[in-house]
Amino acid sequence: MTHHDGETSPQPQVAVVVPCFDEGAVVDRLVEALVPVLASTGRTFEVILVDDGSRDDTLERMRALSHAHEQVHYTALSRNFGKEAAMLAGMSRSRADVTVLMDADLQHPPDLIPSMLALVDAGHDQVVARRDRTGDPAVRTALSRLYYRLVNRLIDVRIQDGVGDFRALSRPAVRAMLSLGETNRFSKGLFAWVGFPTTHIHYRNAPRVGGESKWGSRSLFNYGLDSIISFNSKPLRLAIHLGMLISVLAVLYGLWVGIDSAIHRNPVPGYTTLLCAILGLGGLQIMMLGVLGEYLGRIYMETKQRPHFLVREVDGGPPGDLPLIG
Ligand code: UDP
Ligand code: MG
After folding, report:
1. Domain of 158, in residue numbers
2. Distance from the CA of 235 to the CA of which of 157, 194, 265, 295 falls in 20 to 30 A?
3. What is the pLDDT of residue 1?
4. Predicted local distance difference test score (pLDDT) of residue 4
5. pTM of the full predicted structure?
6. Distance 35 CA to ligand 2 centre (A)
7. Of 186, 180, 268, which is closest to residue 229 (Cα–Cα)?
8. Which ligand is nearest to the CA of 88?
9. How many Å lie between the centroid of ligand 1 and the Cα of residue 43?
10. Which ligand neighbours the alpha carbon of 104 most closely?
11. Does 271 fall in a domain?
12. What is the pLDDT of residue 102?
């Protein structure tokens, strides 16, 4: 069995990192599409597939692919650590001048890569591929527009609609990403946070060529919460403002009811107002406790300083001395 050792072979100019979770249905097609495009650029390249604890035959296919193509390498994680960790594992293995991140499902067109590389050569450290929303349900488009407006008000870095993880990064940008050690990785925000000269390139949205998306509407909602909470503590500040506003309103309302009954001899309105106040405030308090707890939970997770992922197998062999974390 051949061992393609990324450490001893010469450093390629381009590395393409692909996180894969249950992508057995598409990973062959991806490599078949990717290799000719990369070869056509005339640059030396490698494809780094990361198996994120797939339950299907993804890993067997990766073994076969790395056997068949000397440019194809893979890292298999010990279980499913999530896309962020899988990307980190791939990036930490890349020694190339330019690293391209893309999804396995061919929703990110490989044909775009040559123009992205040209833009990196032209001095942009991050070349971000931005998709339009053709074919997306109108409700989803409207909701995501709302989401981006809200998030950009709350967090300090600017994130844009249609901008995902499909991007080309220069070596300094990759090193910057690897230097961020936080456990809770909201990559859209992290990419924006590291900065560097950035440019965008547009492409048309396409459906997945096979397999299934791992995102339901519930995980999208949680992702939305993550994006706000993992970036700063403005929600805590918001809680203080909201609490103050409600206290002031309560005092004003109390005054008004008192004056009204003293002057006009109106009876004090009864349990309806009380109930509204109790329920409203109760809900608010529980919500704000949740916000508080969320931050506390994150602090707890960060203090553990656990590695972001664990490697089980690399290119047909044990992980050896390859870095476990970035
Ligand atoms: N992915 C991963 N680990 C996960 C979930 C997803 O590595 O826990 C990979 C997946 O294999 C794909 C990419 O992340 O290459 C994007 O996933 P998906 O296509 O399901 O997301 P969508 O395009 O629907 O946002
Ligand atoms: Mg997809």
Report:
1. 14-216
2. 194
3. 38
4. 47
5. 0.75
6. 20
7. 186
8. 1
9. 27
10. 1
11. yes
12. 94
CB contact set of 55 (below 8 Å; sequence gap of 6+): 22
Same-domain pairing of 193 and 240: no
The ligand 1 atom nearest the CA atom of 18 = 15
Give the Å distances, CA to CA, from 139 to 142, 144, 163, 220, 252: 5, 9, 19, 14, 40
- Number of the ligand closest to the Cα of 87: 1
Residue nearest to atom 13 of ligand 1 (CA): 103
Identify the segments of the chain with pLDDT beneath 50. 1-7
Helix ranges (H only) for 155-195 are 171-179, 187-194
d(CA 167, CA 127): 5
Whether 53 and 87 map to the same domain: the answer is yes
| 261 in the same domain as 209 | no
Which domain-ending residue is among 190, 216, 242?
216
Q: Is the ipTM reported for this complex over the cut 0.90?
A: yes
Residue 157 tokens, joined: 């870095």
Reading the block at residue 213, the tokens are: 């998306």
> Do 159 and 193 fall into the same domain?
yes
Sign of CA dihedral 191, 111, 94, 121: negative
Q: How far is the CA of 208 from the centre of ligand 2 (A)?
A: 6
Measured by CA distance, the residue closest to atom 2 of ligand 1 is 83
Q: Does residue 140 line the site of ligand 1, with CB under 6 A?
A: no
pLDDT tens digit string along 136-152? 778 878 888 888 888 77
- If you measure from the C-alpha of residue 83 to the centroid of ligand 1, how many angstroms do you get, rounded to a whole number? 6
Flag whether 6 is in a domain.
no
Which structure tokens are listed for 105? 């499902």
- Asked if residue 287 belongs to a domain, the reply is yes
- Domain tally, the chain: 2
